[in-house]
Amino acid sequence: MSRARPFLKIAAAGAAAIILAGLSAVAAFEIAIARLDPPPLQVADQLSVTVLDREDRLLRAFTTEDHRWRLPITHTQVDQRYLKLLFAFEDRRFWTHGGVDMYAAGRAALQLVHNQRIVSGASTLTMQVARLLDRRHERTAAGKFSQILRAVQLERQLSKGQILDIYLRLAPFGGNIEGVRAASLAYFGREPNRLSLSQAALLVALPQSPETRRPDRNWKAARIARNRVLQRGVAAGVISRAEAEYAMADVVPHLRRSFPMLAPHLAEAELVAHPDRTVHHLTIDRNVQAALQTLATQHAGALGPKLSTAVIAVDHTTGEILAQVGSASYFDGERFGAVDMTRAIRSPGSTLKPLVYGLGFEAGLAHPETLIEDRPTRFGSYRPENFDDSYHGTVTIREALGHSLNVPAVAMLDAVGPDRLVGRLKRFGLTPVLPDDAHPSLAIALGGLGLTLEDLAGLYTGLANGGRYVALTHLRGDAQQRHLTGAVADDGKRRLMSPVAAWYVGDILKDAPPPANTRGGRIAYKTGTSYGYRDALAIGYDGRYVIAVWVGRPDATSTPGLTGRTAAAPILFDAFSRLEEQRVPLAPAPAGVLRVSGAELPPPLKRFGREATEASSGGFLQQPVVIAFPPDRSELEVGAGQQPAEPLLLKAEGGQLPLTWLVDGRPLDSSPHRREVLWQPNGPGFAKVSVIDAEGRVDRVTVRLQ
């Protein structure tokens, strides 16, 4: 025993030295990690700006500042078979090691000594993330040690899921493609959440040597690398041999695809409006947008060179824009494809005639079965003519609007008043542009002002909703908030026309014959052609959707023979058929609709015209008295808490002065020569406001004060 003691002492001393050396190495390792700068995680946040549709599907993406495609993605958004193959091929113990796989490192070292060459590597996904973040790929011992330090540092600061997400965003796939999502879109044209086994294996193989294995440049090398991943998956037991053999027979893509380019004009406008956002959420429906973009391109090609098309589709029950096609083809320079024609100010042609007649119905001047004259007529120095240079004599207003006759529309606007029409457009939230800021004239009945296609879509959204105001929006969060807060409710201050008047208009427009070679349906629609054949329009709606179509040249050059009925209406009907197979029925008639023949109408409504109007109004044109403000059933804020109620200005239109105002049956002091009066409410509650003109005609509204 005495002879063994010196040996034991030596062994103990050696062990202690080894332990101390190990502890010293650990301490040095810890010191190195502590002194290492924080990992440059901001690199992983430098992502492409993406524009998403209503279901978070990609509409368009933009490259980063360094011109790379690097799209946002998380490990929960990729196909699980891809992840299984990734771990089997790159890092089997990813979820358990601390950044460095000691087992793999030991195995690699033994294989190197035994074979005198590198047989397998020991790089973990965390080490690869460290290299991607540092933007360095050094194969030296010092470089590997730096990766190990950074990997351990990352494991201490981030979760495994966060590390995996960074790899999925930054892994190189050849050229300027980084990240598995960008690669999946570029090589397969699909999102990585559903991949074939062959596609998943290829995406695992490419980052190993992205430039030499790019499918669009060396598909043979890509196929060999893909098959190697599949074989490793069989060895690891994550896929069967039969699955691997089937996947190996799949063709490797030879080309790189373009990234989605849906709603390009709207996407660019969003970037300008919100430059601080990296993800933009729109109400656009990807499928509808793609279908209508294709439709616009096809029809423009058939119509002829230099002509472009624009289309807007709206869910008029919410105001959400489902598709917004700004041109026939964004990259078509001959058609000025980069110009967004949904927001260009153009003449609306005859598409304002429904509003003209609607205001006449609302004012009690006419009914759809009222007779009106279509004869050569002069309004001062203005003498309108019909599009076909012919006249139809005595027709009903239903026929006049259905056939888009010009003279009756101008006669109705003469009675309604051009100022009132423009004022109603402005009150509805639109900004009509008059030529050289001129005073509104009768020519606006035939398109003598400027509006955008988006304006017209909003206008017909009001018609489709019984005259109530529904603001259009393409922002998903905005649409959801408006829906939750009830902002799509009736806004009397911005009402387009009364529900009865709106229904009359829709009842006429739904019977307009469909264009040639198209399938008819229960669509209320109107066409328009601007002066000089510069713009062709068609706008229609059913019980849920509004679609507006424009055709023309963006440079406003005349195109002889271009009309709304022949050029735009076929696109409108085709768009409705692609949007939905079955038409949603139009809204039923509201209370107050008068469904009678012309012979059964009250005498003042049987015939419209200057003689008839003068006879029924005492020899001069007189509109019935209407309370312009406050609107019926509106809610008004008049004060809060102990503060006194704010006075309100009551306004009336039409009628014969003097006017008598009453609130809850009690008269207000008012000037006999004014149509406005100040009313001081007593406080919150409901109030009934009435006005009576000199002829005894009355209008009433009920308001809620809060």
Description:
The protein is of the alpha+beta class. It is built from 23 helices and 20 strands. The strands form six sheets. It has a five-stranded antiparallel β-sheet, with helices on both faces. Strands 14-20-19-16-17 form a five-stranded mixed β-sheet, with no helix packed on it. β6 and β7 (320-325) form a beta hairpin. The termini are far apart. Residues 15-26, 483-489 and 611-621 have low confidence and may be disordered. Its EC number is 2.4.99.28. It holds the Pfam family BiPBP_C. InterPro entries: Beta-lactam/transpept-like (IPR012338), Glyco_trans_51 (IPR001264), Glycosyltr_51/Transpeptidase (IPR050396), Lysozyme-like_dom_sf (IPR023346), PBP_1c (IPR011815), PBP_C (IPR009647), PBP_transglycosylase (IPR036950), PCN-bd_Tpept (IPR001460). This is peptidoglycan glycosyltransferase.
Side-by-side strand order of the widest sheet: 7-6-12-11-10
Amount of beta strand:
5-15%
Oligomer: single chain
The total of helices stands at: 23
User: Between the first and last Cα atoms, what is the distance in angstroms?
Assistant: 103 Å
The secondary-structure class comes to alpha+beta
Could you report the average pLDDT, rounded to the nearest whole number? 87
Number of strand elements: 20
Low-confidence stretches: 15-26, 483-489, 611-621
Largest sheet: 5 strands, antiparallel
What share of residues is helical? 25-40%
Coarse morphology: elongated
What is the gyration radius calculated from CA atoms? 36 Å
Pathway: Cell wall biogenesis; peptidoglycan biosynthesis
Family: In the C-terminal section; belongs to the transpeptidase family.
Domain Glycosyl transferase family: 65-232
Protein name: peptidoglycan glycosyltransferase
